[in-house]
Specification:
Mean pLDDT of chain B: 88
CATH architecture of the largest domain in chain B: Orthogonal Bundle
Structural class of chain A: alpha/beta
Strand content of chain A: 5-15%
Largest sheet of chain A: 6 strands, mixed
Structural class of chain B: mainly alpha
Number of helices of chain B: 5
CATH topology of the largest domain in chain B: 3-methyladenine DNA Glycosylase II, Chain A, domain 3
CATH class of the largest domain in chain B: Mainly Alpha
Largest interface: A-B, 33 and 28 residues
Shape of chain A: elongated
Number of domains of chain B: 2
Radius of gyration of chain B: 26 Å
Order of helices and strands of chain B: HHHHEHEEE
Helix content of chain A: 25-40%
Strand content of chain B: 5-15%
CATH class of the largest domain in chain A: Alpha Beta
Low-confidence stretches of chain A: 496-507
Helix content of chain B: 25-40%
Number of helices of chain A: 15
CATH topology of the largest domain in chain A: Rossmann fold
Distance between the termini of chain B: 86 Å
Radius of gyration of chain A: 39 Å
Oligomer: heterodimer
Largest sheet of chain B: 2 strands, antiparallel
Distance between the termini of chain A: 121 Å
Mean pLDDT of chain A: 89
CATH architecture of the largest domain in chain A: 3-Layer(aba) Sandwich
Number of strands of chain A: 17
Shape of chain B: elongated
Number of domains of chain A: 3
Chain lengths: ~575, ~180
């Protein structure tokens, strides 16, 4: 029997899992349209690689990964691309984002896949490349590109933790996946284990899922996986948090600012392991996932839904009840309110809860904090939530950071126990995003300062270079003059009337005189050039144009005479 | 009496020598306060404070010549930071100086004649172009200082407000309606 290490705090909210976990996973009906966001994962948005009106096949890439941290997006079924535009997405802001709308043709025709019978024969880089191309991301909720996590270069990974804890109320998608597809999960875990060179695989499942534990244990025995162990962990929220589960299974405490990989542990959701297997063995990209549809519905159930399925169409299949007033994506503790019923299912959608006033009564008005510190007792990150609340409320962001705001996993245990009904997590989220925004603007300011200073330097340098060039030129001219006067030129002086040249100037002439001569030389040069150039377009002129030109010339001569006479008068005076 | 005077004088000379040595040895080039103030300023280099850039403004503040409430791009938050740094009271913006929402310059490329005047005006080299060639703004580097708008002879530069999107969206400060107790 493995020793388990409890973590600090935690709560026991009503699990509400029994509603949806007694029925097998159902295949969701093909929706009328699919709205597929291009930003379903951590990192850069995928770049659309299809055109409006284009026919695509199931599994065809429609969004290519862009940059280092990114993931591909695929067509979940065959059909026609109807639009590539901004649509509401599953994001708490409600701000639209770039989505591809696909109208299914009903044939569900696959593109040519590249299955692999013996993945062990493939190079590790090839495996990672296949995962990236298949768009496999963490399905536990964070949606971090999995290929990025399957590296073991810097640190020796001893333990691979498979997260099947599923601690949030209402959600049963991992439970059902483990019950029905245990063997494939373990095969995926085998690939992950190989990529990480891990010594052991610990599969943590909360003990309120005995069927899943039994199924996984049977699969481990069937597959003769010697390095894998299914561990029943106590049911306590948030026992499914990566840090918490690692702590429970291995006793390793992942400190602030440290990654679990530094301590030899990597953690994946069981759904991710399943998708990894499908991607490598069958060449199937991530185009569908198991979604729990529960809450205010007649038939709460798990569906295997295509990504992009509009939420309202999916919930309708579970017989949505009429008094539904909104949807939560995720669980009631950490989930987000969806801004619209038309948003598409994304890779991170593990659960959809239809809300009604009886299930989710409106929040009671928040009362002042009475410093009871119940939040401290339940905080799994061992923070001081009441202090953090104080600092976030007064926008004292520096102090909030000092109290390790960024160790908060936003599990909501503090808000759950707060007798004053203070929405604590909302304050923490506010403070976190303020700090991020400040850091971004600080970075921008530093970059701007650098560019400005560089520009100033450049201007200064250019000025200096110009001055040096000028000085060198003048010096050269003076030197030339000095040489000429020291040894008189063998060539005779230019005949009079051609205008004075600079070389005529005596060396000991005062600078003003030299300047005068220089100007005179420049004027002569310009005159010579003017004489050399002829006005263009003088041929093939109509008599009328010639008359006009003559008139203008006459006027010019008159003006010149006038100007000369006035100058003469001035000089006389 | 005399010996006491001599002892005191000797001590004074010795301490003076130590101080003099320290002043040379630990001499700090420039005013370190200027750097600190400059770090707080938003570096738009816009000159709205009346000084030709953020560094000159920082210098003026450090010398006590300028007030701390002259930087609209820094916003009230910036004034708070300066007040904290300098240990003075917060001062609201005076008169007609008000912070504007963040924006970036945008060149209407159909109307640009390629005169390079905006390139010369940009304090952070955020405009690409050459004489008689179309110019364009590197939006990521633009600080929104508006210095390029005035020199443009064909008025083809607009300031475009930065719209809220998924990546720059922030969680709002929680606000709840208070209901009177019955």
């Amino acid at each position: 029997m493995r020793t388990l290490y409890p973590f600090h705090g935690g709560i026991h909210p009503a699990s509400n899992k029994a509603q949806s976990n007694h029925k097998p996973i159902a295949q969701a009906a093909l929706p009328s349209r699919l709205v597929i966001p291009l930003h379903q994962h951590v990192g850069n948005s995928a770049k659309p690689v299809v055109e409006i009106g284009q026919c695509v096949l199931k599994g065809q890439i429609i969004g290519a990964p862009e940059g280092h941290v990114s993931s591909a997006v695929h067509a979940p079924t065959s059909g026609v691309i109807a639009a590539i535009d901004m649509q509401p997405v599953a994001h708490p802001s409600g701000i639209p984002d770039l989505c591809i709308t696909l109208i299914p043709d009903g044939n569900d025709e696959w593109i040519a896949r590249e299955p692999c019978d013996d993945w062990k024969a493939l190079a590790h880089t090839d495996l990672r490349h296949r995962l990236r191309a298949a768009g496999v991301v963490g399905l536990g909720g964070a949606a971090f590109p999995s290929d990025m996590k399957l590296y073991a270069h810097k640190h020796k990974i001893k333990t691979l933790v498979l997260n099947g804890a599923e601690c949030e109320p209402y959600i049963t998608c991992d439970d059902l996946l483990m019950r029905e597809r245990a063997a494939e999960i373990l095969q995926g875990a085998e690939i992950m284990c190989a990529l990480l060179y891990a010594e052991e695989v610990l599969i943590g499942i909360e003990d309120n899922k005995p069927e899943a534990i039994a199924a996984m244990r049977a699969a481990v025995l069937d597959g003769k996986y010697e390095r894998m162990e299914v561990v029943a962990v106590p049911t306590i929220y948030p026992g499914g948090g990566a840090k918490q589960l690692i702590r429970v299974l291995t006793g390793i405490e992942v400190a602030a600012g440290v990654r679990s990989t530094n301590l030899g542990v990597q953690c994946f959701n069981v759904g991710t392991a399943y998708s990894t297997w499908r991607a490598i063995r069958h060449g199937e990209p991530l185009i569908s996932r198991i979604v729990t549809v529960t809450g205010n519905v007649g038939q709460p159930q798990n569906f295997e839904a295509l990504l992009g399925t509009p939420v309202n169409e999916l919930v309708a299949q579970a017989e949505q009840l009429p008094d539904t007033r909104g949807y939560i994506m995720g669980g009631p503790m950490m989930g987000i309110r969806l801004p619209s019923a038309q948003v598409g299912v994304i890779k991170a959608t593990n659960c959809l809860i239809a809300m009604s006033d009886s299930l989710f009564p409106p929040a009671l008005p928040a009362l002042p904090c009475i410093r009871c510190t119940r939040c401290v007792d339940v905080c799994p990150a061992e923070l001081q939530p009441q202090e953090l609340f104080w600092f976030a409320q007064s926008k004292n962001l520096l102090k909030a950071q000092e109290y390790h705001l960024f160790d908060c996993i936003e599990c909501g245990a503090c808000s759950y126990v707060c007798p004053s009904n203070i929405p604590l997590v909302e304050y923490y989220r506010f403070a976190k995003s303020e700090i991020w925004a400040q850091e971004t603007s600080k970075k921008a300011a530093d970059a701007a300062r650098e560019r400005h200073e560089y520009r100033e330097q450049r201007i200064e340098r250019e000025k200096q270079e110009k001055a040096e060039k000028l000085a060198a030129k003048e010096k050269a001219a003076l030197d030339a003059k000095a040489q000429k006067s020291a040894s008189p030129p063998p060539t005779p002086l230019p005949p009079a009337g051609e205008g004075a040249s600079v070389s005529d100037a005596p060396v000991d002439a005062d600078p003003e005189d030299t300047m005068h001569l220089k100007i005179q030389a420049a004027i002569d040069h310009a005159k010579q050039q003017a004489a050399g150039s002829k006005p263009g377009n003088t041929e093939q002129l109509t008599p009328q144009q010639q008359a006009e030109i003559a008139e203008i010339d006459a006027r010019r001569t008159r003006i010149r005479e006038l100007a000369l006479s006035s100058v003469n008068e001035h000089t006389k005076e | 009496m005399l010996s006491a005077l001599l002892v005191m004088a000797a001590i004074a000379i010795a301490l003076g020598a130590v101080l003099g040595f320290a002043a040379i040895k630990f001499h700090v080039e420039g005013n370190p306060l200027v750097e600190k103030i400059d770090a707080v300023l938003p570096q738009t280099q816009c000159g709205q404070c009346g000084f030709p850039g953020c560094k000159p403004y920082a210098t003026a503040i450090a010398e006590g010549v300028a007030d701390i409430n002259l930087c609209p791009p820094g916003g009230e938050e910036g004034i708070h930071k300066l007040a904290d740094l300098l240990g003075v009271d917060f001062k609201p913006f005076g008169g007609d100086t008000t912070p504007k929402p963040k924006a970036v310059a945008f060149i209407d490329e159909n109307n640009c004649i390629g005169c390079t005047l905006c390139i010369q005006a940009c304090p952070v080299d955020a405009i690409v172009g050459a004489a008689k060639q179309m110019h364009t703004i590197i939006a990521a580097e633009c600080t929104g200082c508006e210095l390029c708008v005035a020199p443009c002879p064909v008025d083809c530069i607009d300031m475009v407000k930065i719209a809220e999107n998924i990546s720059n969206w922030k969680w709002k400060y929680p606000v709840y309606a208070l209901t009177p107790s019955k």
